[in-house]
């Protein structure tokens, strides 16, 4: 088992990472939350069916009063309706300010349960118990949110968890698509922070079909280290935290345009990263070996182009609604070099031309 500390201005908190560490959840929860009145596990149907009984029994062994609220699996649960149902469940079951919420699942449950914890009685403690690879990113840093039909993560808060308990054993049941989705964020952390990590990944990972437990821990540790360094400096995204959005401006637009859940978050981000890499080479007149990276993405199974039925205009419209867009200037994270991200703004006309050029030339 490894332990890391996340240092944020609001609160430092531990991350416990290991294979088969779930049995310690009760002990670690009590070490960070003194004498909780009730524990509310918020989880999705898939995770509940696979592991709900196990987590409940581990907590009950500590004589804790445990309740479980189950939401449907998938992005559609980051909605007002589900958020409201969770709050109603908490009120009907008499949770109070001394209660603790456990977000048990992937990034969807983490974002939703975190937002419930941030707003229930003006904020109660919560603990992240992630079950997807992608959650190495979403569980760290305290951004919690739900979606609005007009945009992703538009209603949210900053609310740091009290601890993250990451048992890689859960990842054994994760479908390949979800492993790949999480892997995209691992690659992102490499691109914005560490060239040698990216090179190492490109050398050693050619398929995600048989990722070992050691490799998963390597990905998660590295991803958490990069994220931890950034949020320690910039908890509320007034500066370098924005670099974590590498690949996300186009990625979010693609997710929204296709309809949430039609493409995984990571696949959309991977496609967005490819465009951002191509654009970075163009703007900074550098050679990042775009073609090799694109071929590697293809080998891994990431989408390397956008379906022809999607209009460039529609993607632009989506990007204009992005939280990072100000005065119609669309903000992109580009790379001056691998490991050296910068922010660049584009007017819609310029971006339209670049996006069209990439779709016709960069994707082939
Ligand atoms: N808050 C942040 O900083 C941040 C960062 C990155 C992404 N996110 C958010 O994370 C979300 C995506 O997270 P995700 O990819 O984990 O999606 P997810 O939570 O929907 O999980 C993906 C699917 O895997 C299933 N699943 C979860 N654990 C499983 C397991 N162990 N075995 C089998 N199936 C399992 C889920 O039921 C779901 O169907 C997006 O909403 C994104 O916006 C947030």
UniProtKB/TrEMBL annotation:
Alphabetized UniProt keyword annotations: Amino-acid biosynthesis, Aromatic amino acid biosynthesis, Cobalt, Cytoplasm, Lyase, Metal-binding, NAD, Nucleotide-binding, Zinc
Domain 3-dehydroquinate synthase N-terminal: 69-180
Protein residues bound to Zn(2+): 185, 248, 265
GO CC, any one term: cytoplasm
Biological processes per GO annotation: amino acid biosynthetic process; aromatic amino acid family biosynthetic process; chorismate biosynthetic process
Listed pathway(s): Metabolic intermediate biosynthesis; chorismate biosynthesis; chorismate from D-erythrose 4-phosphate and phosphoenolpyruvate: step 2/7
Gene3D superfamilies: 3.40.50.1970, Dehydroquinate synthase-like - alpha domain
SUPFAM superfamilies (alphabetical): Dehydroquinate synthase-like
Positions bound to NAD(+): 73-78, 107-111, 131-132, 143, 152, 170-173
Record has Ubl conjugation as a keyword: no
Localization (cell): Cytoplasm
Named cofactor requirement(s): NAD(+); Co(2+); Zn(2+)
3-dehydroquinate synthase C-terminal domain span: 182-325
A molecular function GO annotation: 3-dehydroquinate synthase activity
Co-factor: note: Binds 1 divalent metal cation per subunit. Can use either Co(2+) or Zn(2+).
UniProt-listed Enzyme Commission number(s): 4.2.3.4
Source organism, top-level taxon: Bacteria
Record's catalysed reaction(s): 7-phospho-2-dehydro-3-deoxy-D-arabino-heptonate = 3-dehydroquinate + phosphate
Protein function: Catalyzes the conversion of 3-deoxy-D-arabino-heptulosonate 7-phosphate (DAHP) to dehydroquinate (DHQ).
Family: Belongs to the sugar phosphate cyclases superfamily. Dehydroquinate synthase family.
Matching HAMAP family: DHQ_synthase (MF_00110)
Listed name of the protein: 3-dehydroquinate synthase
């Amino acid at each position: 088992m490894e332990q890391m500390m996340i240092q944020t201005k609001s609160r430092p908190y531990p991350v416990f990472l290991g294979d088969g560490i779930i049995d310690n959840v009760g002990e670690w929860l009590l070490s960070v939350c003194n004498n909780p009145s009730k524990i509310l596990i918020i989880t999705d149907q898939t995770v509940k069916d696979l592991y709900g009984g196990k987590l409940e029994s581990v907590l009950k062994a500590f004589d804790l009063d445990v309740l479980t609220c189950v939401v449907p699996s998938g992005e559609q649960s980051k909605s007002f309706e589900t958020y409201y149902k969770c709050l109603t469940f908490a009120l009907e079951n008499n949770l109070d300010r001394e209660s603790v919420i456990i977000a048990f699942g992937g990034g969807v449950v983490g974002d939703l349960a975190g937002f419930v914890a941030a707003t229930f009685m003006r904020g109660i403690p919560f603990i992240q118990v992630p079950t997807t690879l992608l959650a190495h990113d979403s569980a760290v840093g305290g951004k919690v949110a739900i979606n609005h039909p007009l945009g992703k993560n538009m209603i949210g808060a900053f609310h740091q968890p009290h601890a993250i308990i990451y048992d890689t054993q859960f990842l054994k049941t994760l479908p390949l698509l979800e492993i790949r989705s999480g892997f995209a964020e691992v690659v992102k952390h490499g691109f914005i922070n560490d060239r040698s990590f990216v090179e190492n990944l490109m050398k050693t990972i050619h398929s995600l079909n048989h990722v070992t437990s050691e490799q998963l821990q390597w990905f998660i540790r590295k991803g958490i280290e990069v994220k931890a360094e950034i949020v320690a400096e910039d908890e509320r995204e007034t500066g370098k935290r924005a670099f974590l959005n590498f690949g996300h401006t186009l990625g979010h637009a693609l997710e929204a345009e296709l309809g949430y859940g039609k493409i995984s978050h990571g696949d959309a981000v991977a496609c967005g990263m490819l465009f951002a890499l191509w654009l970075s080479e163009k703007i900074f007149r550098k050679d990042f070996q775009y073609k090799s990276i694109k071929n590697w993405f293809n080998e891994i199974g990431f989408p390397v182009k956008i379906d022809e039925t999607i209009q460039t205009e529609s993607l632009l419209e989506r990007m204009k609604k992005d939280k990072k867009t100000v005065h119609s200037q669309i903000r992109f994270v580009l790379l001056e070099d691998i490991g050296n991200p910068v922010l660049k703004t584009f007017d819609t006309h310029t971006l339209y031309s670049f996006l069209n050029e990439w779709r016709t030339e960069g994707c082939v």
